[in-house]
Specification:
With about 550 residues, this protein is an alpha+beta fold. It has seven helices and 25 strands. The chain folds into two domains: about 220 residues, PmbA/TldD fold, CATH 3.30.2290; about 240 residues, no CATH class. Helices cover about 20% and strands about 30% of the residues. Helix 1 packs across helix 2. The protein is globular, with a radius of gyration of 26 Å.
């Protein structure tokens, strides 16, 4: 199969002209042929024909190597298989003026995602297997779209809703095609050796009962085609190490924690980096072993990048997404709609930071950004956005569902909801107004605590709201630090009010991943006031005999 050649694939369905030549491979041949056939022939009596659809095929190649306390786990790879293949299908009926978009008659967590894994067989499903899967998904998606279109029409009549805006404002179809390199198999023996040695670090601490290390090398290839003429073909390789620990405190209570170490690749230098980060993680475990329990606290807290990313997501990013509310048959309001879509140019944040959304960013310091998206799920070319500047909302993620007259999509439609693409963010970069070092951020924390007459402040490292393994007390008298336990963020939720109370932003920026929702690249954030409250942990039964010596 010549996966790198770009060529035309015959005649297209009447009325559809592609934004550029289709890549000459089985993925686009199967998608093109089945889309052409479905648009021409798919029809259910008393329902409109499909007028729009997209296909997305994702091929994933991965190697996963695991070990626990120096012992390798069974292999999770097979060099005789090409990988895994999945397909996603979306269909709309009606017209741009009125279709089923923007309406839901089911609770959020009860929908069925129109995506499926494709059996690989040996060596691959091939053109016929892929077309078979696309045909089955298209049939199912059309039935769902036709039903939704009918229900939405009845709902609008019942509620006497007469829209002046169309349901969809089409944009120029996007085009992004790059060669897809073959998956480069890593040196499995070397990965096994490294994972076994890193996991064996857990044996150095007698209170550690499990120290699990998982190393993954992955390449995701994307093939996208829609009936408006949009075409995309691109790849996203990445590597990561995940370290998980279970340890027992002196009082018998067990604790669990984990960390993900994102890597540029699996070169010797990067594997050494993973080992050092795993050792740092184990050091934090050692500090947490037997650490004192803390009492309630209200005051300044320095959020290190992982904790800062969680705060920013909760305080403002969630309210920037889902810009246009949906019609819901089961509720008066769409509680998942962004709360800021009517507050453009309104102050919602401190002016000490600027937020950008950059879907076209592929890497941060050599690490692949998993939300890279040259085209969105509607096939519109993605645009970089300035979300917040000088404390005020500037841009929103927009799709082809119009908010106002003269509406234009900025390429931020993502399928993370029940009945179609919705407004979402990708790679969010937090830029501080003033470049400060980590040491200067701690000095500002101590200075503010002294002004308030506090004996100490807190530094929160992790995104876990419980704070365990990531909460340090820092004393105003001498800057001494100690790990403390059993404090958590009160309410486990930040708001825009908290973001307006930021005292400083700066220090080394880090990457925070979230499988659902945007990636965030942020430095530390010093909060004026965070409430930390005690939490109780249940005691676990201790083993009848001690852990075996290793």
């Amino acid at each position: 199969m010549k996966r790198f050649l770009i060529g035309l694939i015959g005649l297209c369905y009447a009325g559809v002209s592609w934004a550029g030549p289709l890549p000459d491979n089985m993925y686009f041949r199967a998608m093109h042929d089945e889309m052409q056939r479905s648009l021409a022939n798919l029809h259910l009596k008393d329902h409109p024909r499909p007028y729009y659809m997209y296909y997305l095929v994702r091929e994933v190649h991965s190697v996963v190597v695991k070990a626990n306390m120096g012992t390798l786990a069974p292999a999770l790879y097979d060099e005789n298989e090409l990988g895994s293949l999945s397909a996603e299908v979306f269909v709309s009926v009606g017209s741009d003026k009125q279709d089923g978009l923007g309406f839901s008659d089911v609770q959020r967590n009860s929908w069925e995602y129109l995506s499926t894994q494709i059996p690989y067989g040996f060596p691959s499903p091939g053109y016929d297997g892929l077309r078979q899967t696309l045909w089955q998904l298209t049939d199912k998606a059309y039935l769902q779209a036709a039903d939704l279109y009918k229900k939405k029409k009845v709902y609008k009549q019942k509620k006497n809703i007469h829209d002046t805006l169309p349901d969809v404002v089409p944009e120029k179809p996007g085009y992004f095609v790059e060669p897809i390199p073959p998956f480069a198999w890593p040196d499995i023996a070397q990965l096994q050796k490294q994972v076994r040695e890193i996991s064996a670090l857990g044996k150095t601490q007698p209170f550690v009962e499990s120290f699990d290390v998982e190393l993954e090398v992955r390449q995701q290839d994307f093939y996208y085609l829609n009936s408006r003429g949009a075409v995309a073909q691109y790849t996203k390789p990445h590597a990561r190490a995940e370290v998980s620990v279970v340890f027992r405190q002196p009082d018998g209570k067990t604790a669990k924690s984990s960390t993900v170490i994102w890597l540029k690749d699996v070169s010797a230098a990067q594997l050494d980096y993973a080992r050092n980060k795993a050792q740092d993680f184990l050091n934090r475990v050692r500090q947490a072993y037997g650490a004192p329990s803390a009492t309630a606290y209200i005051g300044p807290v320095l959020l290190k990048p992982q904790a800062a990313a969680r705060m920013i997501k909760q305080a403002v990013l969630n309210d920037l997404e889902n810009s246009k509310p949906w019609l819901l048959s089961y509720a008066d309001d769409d509680d998942e709609a962004g709360k800021l879509y009517k507050k453009q140019h309104v102050r919602v944040s401190t002016d000490l930071l600027t937020l950008y959304d950059r879907p076209l960013a592929r890497q941060f310091e050599g690490i692949t950004l998993l939300k890279f998206a040259p085209l969105d799920k509607e096939g519109v070319a993605a645009q970089n956005l300035t979300l917040i500047q000088n404390g005020r909302v500037q841009d929103f993620p927009l799709t082809q569902r119009p908010l106002t007259k003269n509406h234009h999509s900025n390429g931020h439609a993502y399928l993370d909801t029940v009945n179609g693409p919705r407004e979402g963010l990708t790679n969010v970069f937090v830029e501080p107004k003033e470049q400060l070092t980590d040491e200067q951020m701690e000095e500002k924390l101590l200075a503010r605590c002294r002004e308030l007459g506090l004996e100490y402040g807190y530094i929160l490292y992790g995104a876990d709201p419980s704070g365990d393994l990531g909460l340090e007390r820092i004393y105003t008298s001498d800057g001494r630090k100690e790990t403390v336990l059993n404090l958590k963020w009160d309410g486990n939720f930040f708001t825009q009010r908290d973001l307006r109370g930021v005292l400083a932003v700066g220090g080394e920026r880090q990457l925070s991943y979230n499988w659902r929702g945007p990636v965030v690249v942020t430095p530390s954030v010093l909060m004026e006031e965070v409430e930390l409250v005690p939490q109780e942990h249940k005691a676990h039964r201790q083993p009848f005999i001690p852990k075996p010596k290793m």
